[in-house]
Structure formats: structure tokens, C-alpha cells
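Q&A FORM
Asked by: J.P.
Topic: structure of Holliday junction resolvasome, helicase subunit

PROVIDED:
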Amino acid sequence: MTRFTLLAGAALLALATSAAASSFVATTDTLGGLVANASESTSDITSSFNDDKIVLAARDDAASFVASAGGIRGAQLEAALRHIRTQAPQVRADDLQLAQAILAL
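REPLIED BY: S.T.
REPLY: Here is the structure written out as C-alpha cells.
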């Protein structure tokens, strides 16, 4: 092999490593932002609804929903999810996140 071929191969390897590292950083930044937004949404829920009778009545249904990974959806949980989304439309959380927040009350 010529010296030029070895240098070109080393340069390509360095570029590939740099691209992979920057891609990893961008991915972890994106995931970190999503987790922070979800956490902020659920903390808004817990502070706003900690004495709401509709939401508190759904705790057992929320526990079943979380334990079954969404397989069991009780009537009280459904009512609480509708109530939360009506009272706090700015909250951007899925049903599982809301059920977990209800359990945190």
C-alpha cells in the first residue's frame, strides 16, 4: 500500500468517527428534551389536580392501566383523562403519562 492510501484511509476513519459522535450527541439531546418536556407536563398535572375529586377517584383505574401497559382502561380513568384534557389543554402527555401522574398524586 502506498503512503497516500494509508493517509486517506486514516482521514476517512477520523471523519466517520466524528460524524458518529455528533450524531450521538444530537440524538441524546433530542431524547433528553423529550423526557424533560414529558416530566414538566406531568409535574404540571400533579400540582394542578392534587385535590380534584374526579382525578383522585381514578387512582385505582390508573394503577390497573399502568400495570397492564394500557390494556385495562377503567371508566373512572377515562373520565379523569377527559377532565384533565378539558381543564389543562396545554398539557401534552399521552394516556400512560397522565395515568402515572395520577398515581403520583
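FOLLOW-UP: The chain has a mean pLDDT of 75.
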